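Exercise 7.
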Amino acid sequence: MNVELIDKMGSDLSVVNAARVSFSKIKDKFDDKDERLIKYLAEHNHWSPFAHASLQFRIEAPVFVARQLVKHQVGLVWNEVSRRYVDMEPKFYIPFMWRKKAENKKQGSSDEEVPYDIVEYIKQSKQLYNDMLEKGIAPEMARMVLPQNMMTEWIWSGTLYGFARVCNLRNKPDAQSETRMISHQIHKHCEQHFPVSWRYLTK
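Solution. The predicted structure, written as tokens, is:
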């Protein structure tokens, strides 16, 4: 799984200038007063100034992770590779240790693990997919036999505020471990490029 930052717009200064435009003011250097303003904006849910900074990621993850993350729509846009049009060799996320079901229904899994090997099943699904393509079956139909642990990739663009909402939800201990792998990487990129805003948005 991988999260690559491919573009970004703005800085912490962009956030405070968006807020100060209400008073027809603009600054060209960030200082302690600006940090206090960002803290105030975040703590009082004045979200619009944080929407003037944005990031664009190219992400590779299993389908089941992508389907959890695509639920986040506010301030974000998503374009994904389509197996209607591509029939390249599929790749798969294959764990060899599997978490057991949690006793608490609000938790998806426990910390207890058991070994389980699905390599043979993956080989069979790939072979079935390739056989269907060789028989001339359209990729948009043949893809139905590929499992949810198949890797997919997408471009995910959006506002700093939008990605803060993603990370505030998906970095929690009760979020699925594999989904946290992606949200943690997003978190690191946002923290690097918007350190002050990110500190208060994800406090």
